[in-house]
Automatic annotation (TrEMBL):
Protein name, entry field: Kinesin light chain
InterPro entries reported for this sequence: NLR-like, TPR-like_helical_dom_sf
Length: 470
């Protein structure tokens, strides 16, 4: 690059290529600021020398957008991706592969901003065009189908997500084989969709199949091997190394090995702070992971400090109504709740609930969850009428939206039964809990924790009623 600058000049095409190559190397090393400086210089020079709509200029714009994206600078990435997409549409046509790629990039930026409807529109258009141009079983088509399924998933549209995930999984099985990593990922995605629909047996079958193909011990060994190799090859502070460390920590977390998960999560968090900055999305995610581990260890004060910092930073960087911000607010509210600080939990719960109602709708699963959280806070404050109103609304909406037999619906029935019992409506509470327990036995099974809990509670209530009758 330096030689070309001297011999050919800064604005020579060959010099710009070498600058782009170096920027790409910086990106692969996770050196975003250095990559940004070069990418910006290449883009501006290309605009001047080649024109805004030249293919090389558009590539440089996409590269810079990618650098912004990796820094969590969604708005700047969006502006560039939008400009690239519109130019590609005009110059190459809507169904050109480069146009479709730019549309996918913009959809991904919308997705990270929590703008699900806009992401959905683009993902749907990309998927349909790729089906027509490339075929249903082309890797790019399958990728766009997975992206659209993910968008549906975040909107709580489980059935539509299921249809796409099922199609992707079956195609991967046929084209790549049952034990291919992409097939296993698609199986996990479908299992997650089944779980959200309360279809536990189907989810379990897929989970078992994935586990048997790639057992937990094997997953741990692979994650460990990947992490150690990346440490050696890329360095401890490389983004890919940090990702593999976070994956291994997640494996430990799911095995209940919280101390080992904590050690890795803390290391990822501290390195991310130094390497990426305190307000980078990946750093904030790592902080949330550590906070979650602390919560599971009952270390409420430490969890509170991290959750508070994550929440405030996300408010500033992403906005108050971003899904990630709302999630961090809920986590902090949960921490307050477990510390018995009910007024502070209430303030956050109300804000999360109202924002989700506006952004996602009253019947979105996340909205219903936030309503349940607030009802629980009211219940613990002794504000039974308010708790009852919310619990009743959650139950009725869950029945309509998720179905009468959905586990979340059954949970809402149990919650309302408890509220009625506390309010002195013993007969109504008993009838509702009996109905709930009958469905739990059928749907969840006799040995499920919720079934056992409801059974014990019902027996206790019935025994007290008999004692009173005597």
């Amino acid at each position: 690059m330096e030689t070309r600058k001297t011999k050919l000049g800064v604005d020579h095409p060959d010099t710009l290529i070498s600058m782009s190559n170096l920027a790409s190397t910086y990106r692969n090393q996770g050196r975003w600021e250095e990559a940004e400086q070069l990418s910006l210089q290449v883009m501006e020079t290309s605009k001047t020398k080649l024109g805004v709509d030249h293919p090389d200029t558009l590539i440089s714009m996409s590269n810079l957008a990618s650098t912004y994206w990796n820094q969590g600078r969604w708005e700047e990435a969006e502006q560039l991706n939008l400009q690239v997409m519109e130019t590609h549409k005009t110059k190459l046509g809507v169904d050109h592969p480069d146009t479709l790629t730019s549309m996918s990039n913009l959809a991904s930026t919308y997705w990270n901003q929590g703008r699900w409807e806009e992401a959905e529109q683009l993902n749907l258009q990309v998927m349909e065009t790729r089906k027509t141009k490339l075929g249903v079983d082309h890797p790019d088509t399958l990728m766009s189908m997975s992206s659209l399924a993910s968008t549906y998933w975040n909107q709580g549209r489980w059935e539509e997500a299921e249809q796409l995930n099922l199609q992707v999984m079956e195609t991967h099985k046929t084209k790549l084989g049952v034990d291919h990593p992409s097939t296993l990922t698609s199986m996990s995605n479908l299992a997650s969709t089944y779980r959200n629909q309360g279809r536990w047996e189907e989810a379990e079958q897929l989970d078992v199949q994935v586990m048997e193909t790639r057992p937990m011990g094997e997953a741990e060994q692979l994650n460990l091997q990947v992490m150690e190799t990346r440490k050696t090859k890329l360095g401890v502070d490389h983004p890919s190394t940090l990702t593999s460390m976070a994956n291994l920590a997640s494996t430990y977390w799911n095995q209940g090995r919280l101390e080992e998960a904590e050690q890795l999560d803390v290391q990822v968090m501290e390195t991310s702070k130094t390497k990426l900055g305190v307000d980078h999305p990946d750093t904030l995610t790592s902080m949330s992971n550590v906070a979650s581990t602390y919560q599971n260890q009952g270390r409420w004060e430490e969890a509170e400090q991290l959750n508070l910092q994550v929440m405030e930073t996300r408010k500033t960087k992403l906005g108050v109504d971003h899904p990630d911000t709302l999630m961090s607010m809920s986590s902090l509210a949960s921490t307050y709740w477990n510390q018995g600080r009910l007024e502070e939990a209430e303030q956050l719960d109300v804000q999360v609930m109202e924002t989700r109602k506006t952004k996602l709708g009253v019947d979105h699963p996340d909205t219903l969850m936030s309503m349940s959280n607030l009802a629980s806070t009211y219940w613990n404050q002794g504000r039974l009428e308010e708790a009852e109103q919310l619990s009743l609304q959650v139950m009725e909406t869950s029945k309509t939206k998720l179905g009468v037999d959905h586990p979340s619906t059954l949970t809402s029935m149990a919650n309302l039964a408890f509220t009625w019992k506390s309010s002195g409506y013993d007969t109504q509470a008993l009838e509702l809990l009996r109905d709930c327990l009958t469905k739990q036995k059928q749907i969840l099974g006799l040995n499920h924790y919720d079934t056992i809990s409801s059974s014990q509670t019902l027996l206790e209530w019935e025994t007290k009623m008999l004692d009173i009758g005597r």
